[in-house]
Design a protein that fits this description.
395 residues, mainly beta, Immunoglobulin-like, seven-stranded mixed beta sheet, five-stranded mixed beta sheet, globular, binds copper (II) ion
């Protein structure tokens, strides 16, 4: 009995030194001092990339004017740690900030959970999961059951060694069906080491490329214009239930807002960032309008994070050459070319595809990239919208 007060007295200086227990916003961005040129650009001291994302809630307007409550990420890279909470609360963006790294780079990605402004009773953690990406360690995979998730007011810096190029996607993996449906989805791709070298394709054609989807060795994934396009779809009743503290209708989930990069047509072709009508903050920054001049090759980096639907895409008037699926170049075991030329391509949630559109043999004009699911060409009950965008080919 007497030992306890004495022990407590001994602990007092320790507790004073440590200060009160608290979570804190913190980032890690170590300098690149290993002397190894991992990205092959000739400079061994510039291979580290540091990005800071915040996770929380916010609002997004659908193309028919309906305001939806969403969860999401925002980019707070460079924001002083002491200001991250104020700046990122209610800052969710749909889709999440696009992440692009080059093969060989080392990414230190800090995630800070800024909490749910509109639902202070929710103490949901968040995480970052790079879908289909081989991780340096399981703790960076973002699956909360197998690694860890980030609580409100706290940060974790994930480490990614970008060794395999391709089109990936990322999402929060906490209560994944809910947080993905609520909007925690983003474009993510790794540029190949072949970028910056010059290849002529087809051989003898005089068409030369310095940007490629993959390390193809022959220039066959070369492109002039890249368009990351993420498919998703939202169920407005689920979002309203989340805001109004109703039981979430998982079994009744029915997505009536089919989206490309977080917008339905015609908002998809707005070249500017779009703001929400709740507080005027930028909520859907990514346009899906694609512009090219005749003769250029367009790379569509397609990915789907729809929770409920498969979607089939088509581009009437331009054939689609699929050169990659699920972040892998389409080649056989002996290196033979397995590219597919098609008029339609179907993606389920979690799938990606790299598609080349060659505009050399088509007349200039406006073409449409859209789903063949006719019921998905609407913004909820408003017709002539949904999963569609325009490809403008100029002479
Ligand atoms: Cu989450």
């Amino acid at each position: 009995m007497k030992a306890l007060p004495r022990l407590a007295l001994l602990l007092v200086p320790l507790l004073l030194a440590a200060g009160p227990a608290r979570a804190a916003v913190s980032t890690q961005c170590p300098p690149d001092t290993d002397g190894v040129d991992t990205d092959g650009d000739g400079n061994p001291a510039n291979d580290h990339v540091c990005i800071h994302l915040a996770a929380g809630d916010g609002f997004a307007d659908m193309a028919n004017g309906r305001l939806l409550y969403v969860f999401g990420f925002s980019n707070v890279t460079g924001v002083p740690n002491a200001r991250v909470m104020q700046e990122a609360m209610l800052g969710a963006q749909l889709p999440a900030p696009t992440l692009v790294v080059k093969q060989g780079q080392r990414l230190y990605l800090t995630l800070t959970n800024v909490g749910m402004m509109m639902r202070p009773d929710l103490f949901d953690a968040h995480s970052v999961h790079w879908h289909g990406f081989p991780n340096a360690a399981p703790i960076f995979d973002g699956v909360p059951e197998a690694s860890i998730a980030i609580n409100m007011g706290a940060s974790l810096t994930y480490f990614y060694a970008a060794e395999l190029p391709g089109t990936y996607m990322y999402h929060c993996h906490v209560e994944a069906a809910e947080h993905i449906q609520m909007g925690m989805v983003g474009n993510l791709y790794v540029l190949p080491a072949q970028d910056g070298t010059e290849r002529e394709y087809p051989a003898g054609s005089g068409r030369r490329y310095r940007r490629f989807a993959y390390n193809d060795g022959d220039g066959s994934t070369g492109y002039d214009v890249a368009a990351p396009i993420q498919l998703a779809s939202l169920d407005p009743e689920f979002h309203d239930a989340s805001l109004s503290v109703q039981p979430l209708p998982f079994a009744a989930m029915r997505d009536t807002f089919p989206l490309l990069n977080g917008r339905g047509y015609p908002a998809t072709v707005d070249p500017l960032p779009r703001s929400n009508s709740h507080d005027g903050r930028v909520s859907q920054p990514v346009s899906s309008l694609i512009r090219a001049t005749r003769g250029q090759r367009i790379l569509l980096r397609l990915s789907s994070l729809s929770t409920t639907e498969y979607f089939t895409l088509t581009v009437p008037g331009i054939s689609m050459q699929v050169v990659g699926r699920d972040a892998r170049l389409l080649r056989g075991t002996t290196g033979e070319n397995l590219y597919q030329t098609t008029t339609t391509l179907t993606l389920g949630g979690g799938e990606s595809a790299d598609v080349i559109l060659d505009t050399a043999a088509i007349p200039p004009g406006t073409y449409f990239l859209h789903t063949t699911h006719l019921h998905a060409l609407s913004n909820d009950t408003e017709d002539l919208g949904g999963m569609m965008t325009e490809i403008v080919i100029t002479p």
